[in-house]
RNA sequence: CGGGCCGUAGUAUACCGGUAGUACACCUGCUUUGGGAGCAGGUUGACCGAGUUCGAUUCUCGGCGGCCCGACCA
């Protein structure tokens, strides 16, 4: 049997850790992700994701993908280089100031996707001709570009970022409303699976709609929004649209009091109405045989921002701390005394057995001292550290240290396998 | 976009109107090996442009870049 390609030997990993953060990075997420070699900064608000960072992003993406698939979303990959025409058709070319505008050498105008209504609406139009084709939900996970005046907070507010954006089409408002609730529940499930507590927060619909929208907020001082939330029930409202204040009684439940907090917006769901289907003259037949404009919804989740929020939420003084669900590896296998052939071959055996059991392992097989390895291990934040050394060899059990709690256990290989595959 | 702070080896920093020192990293060797080792030797640096000056990394101006506060964020 082959070793799972999911496991990696640290001696082969091209990234290295650093003791010090770049002096200009103040945000916790940027400092730790750069020190640990998860990301590389290209310019303000633009980061490359290196092997470890890419693995975390993929895990977040996969959870989002599963929940979107579960509510009937169909995944696509839309273009990121866009012609200017549809953007002019909807008015966004002139009215939305974060739209990048590119002029080619032949003076043709383009933009890059900062949202995809201008692309997805014509796609829907091509295939939807009847109410029988509805409802339809199309989503993708991909790069977005916004010409922000000021990038900030590390990976949490960039000019290029990864977003899951889903667009739904409906025959009736009732059908949209039903899907909106389904999507809201799916969103809450995504955050829960990521180990986060997100609040569905009533907020302004922006320029999309006069109706309320839901923003999904995770409480963190690294966020940019202020919210009021009830200490008893799920009610939560963005301070921008709230007529209440901290300490007021909750109007949605009995006995609840509103508290104020800073939060980061990690998702947003909108009712787009018929704005885009009207702009593109997208109609289909309803069951009475009339041509109607489908009602659209738009559902975003900031993937890279979520990664930043996870770092901000769980990291401690020693470094990153990843929840199981998104960690780049499940096990950090740390061998000590690399000049001991016994320790090394034992570590190799643990690596092989865990990998073959489908458990992703980062094996620190480098020729380095214990202190450096432990410090790196703490910084990298992999949930479970398994130490192999002369000490554990003679004890016949490996030292297992849980990164988040610091709890130490001693387990044999079979106990370890049982624990990890349970 | 307004305001503030800042640009010196790969990283973090120091000094200086006379071309730069330290730590870590990196390379060689020896010793070391359960919490970022020690010794010896070695490699590596002033964002760009203009001005002032005999001489600018240092002073002045402009540009570019970074961070922070605000505004902005359909």
List the main descriptive attributes of the protein structure presented here:
422 residues, alpha+beta, BirA Bifunctional Protein, domain 2, 2 domains, nine-stranded mixed β-sheet, six-stranded mixed β-sheet, elongated, RNA-binding
Write a structural description.
Strands 4, 8, 9, 10, 11, 12, 13, 14 and 17 form a nine-stranded mixed sheet that branches. The chain has a six-stranded mixed sheet with strand order 1-19-18-20-21-22, sandwiched between helices. A three-stranded antiparallel sheet has the order 5-7-6. The mean pLDDT is 95. The protein has 422 residues and is of the alpha+beta class. The chain has twelve helices and 22 strands. It has two domains: 38-314, BirA Bifunctional Protein, domain 2 (2-Layer Sandwich), CATH 3.30.930.10; 329-421, Anticodon-binding domain (Rossmann fold), CATH 3.40.50. The structure holds one RNA strand of 74 nucleotides.
Strand content: 25-35%
CATH class of the largest domain: Alpha Beta
The major beta sheet can be summarized as: 9 strands, mixed
CATH architecture of the largest domain: 2-Layer Sandwich
Q: What is the CATH homology-level superfamily of the largest domain?
A: Bira Bifunctional Protein, Domain 2
| Class by SSE composition | alpha+beta
Q: Layout of SSEs?
A:
Layout: E1 8-9, H1 28-35, E2 39-43, E3 46-49, H2 51-70, E4 74-75, E5 81-83, H3 85-90, H4 92-95, E6 102-103, E7 109-112, H5 117-127, E8 136-145, E9 160-170, H6 173-193, E10 198-203, E11 213-219, E12 225-230, E13 236-238, E14 258-273, H7 275-279, E15 284-285, E16 291-292, E17 295-302, H8 303-314, E18 331-335, H9 341-356, E19 361-364, H10 370-380, E20 384-388, H11 390-395, E21 398-402, E22 408-411, H12 413-421
Helix pairs in contact: 1-8, 2-6, 2-8
The structure holds one RNA strand of 74 nucleotides.
């Amino acid at each position: 049997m082959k070793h799972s390609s999911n496991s990696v030997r640290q001696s082969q990993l091209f990234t290295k850790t650093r003791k010090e953060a770049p002096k200009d990075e103040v945000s916790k997420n940027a400092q730790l992700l750069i020190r640990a070699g998860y990301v590389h900064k290209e310019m303000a608000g633009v980061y490359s994701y290196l092997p470890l960072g890419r693995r975390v992003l993929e895990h977040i993406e996969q959870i989002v993908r599963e929940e979107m698939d579960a509510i009937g979303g169909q995944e696509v990959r839309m273009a990121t280089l866009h012609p200017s025409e549809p953007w002019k058709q909807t008015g966004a070319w002139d009215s939305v100031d974060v739209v990048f505008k590119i002029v080619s050498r032949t003076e043709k105008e383009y933009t890059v996707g900062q949202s995809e209504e201008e692309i997805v609406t014509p796609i829907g139009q091509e295939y939807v001709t009847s109410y029988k084709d509805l409802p339809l939900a199309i989503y993708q996970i991909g790069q977005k570009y916004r010409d922000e005046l000021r990038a900030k907070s590390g990976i949490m507010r960039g000019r290029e970022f990864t977003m899951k954006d889903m667009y739904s089409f409906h025959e009736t408002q009732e059908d949209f409303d039903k899907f909106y609730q389904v999507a809201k529940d799916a969103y809450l499930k995504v955050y829960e699976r990521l180990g986060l507590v997100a609040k569905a927060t009533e907020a302004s619909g922006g320029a999309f709609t006069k109706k309320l929208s839901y923003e999904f907020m995770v409480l963190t001082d690294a966020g940019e929004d202020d919210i009021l939330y009830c200490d008893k029930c799920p009610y939560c409202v963005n301070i921008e649209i709230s007529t209440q204040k901290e300490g007021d009684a909750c109007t949605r439940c009995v006995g609840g009091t509103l508290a104020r907090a800073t939060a980061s917006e990690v998702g947003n769901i909108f009712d787009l109405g018929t704005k885009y289907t009207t702009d593109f003259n997208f109609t289909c037949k309803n069951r009475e045989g009339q041509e109607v404009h489908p009602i659209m919804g738009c559902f975003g989740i900031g993937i890279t921002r979520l990664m930043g929020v996870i770092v901000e939420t769980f990291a401690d003084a020693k470094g990153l701390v990843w929840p199981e669900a998104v960690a780049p590896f499940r096990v950090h296998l740390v061998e000590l005394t690399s000049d001991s052939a016994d320790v090394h071959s034992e570590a190799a055996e643990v690596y092989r057995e865990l990998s073959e059991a489908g458990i992703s392992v980062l094996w620190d097989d480098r020729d380095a001292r214990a202190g450096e390895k432990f410090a790196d291990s703490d910084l990298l934040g992999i949930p479970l550290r398994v130490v192999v050394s002369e000490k554990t060899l003679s004890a016949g059990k490996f030292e297992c240290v849980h990164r988040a709690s610091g709890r130490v256990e001693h387990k044999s290989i079979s106990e370890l396998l049982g624990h990890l595959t349970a």
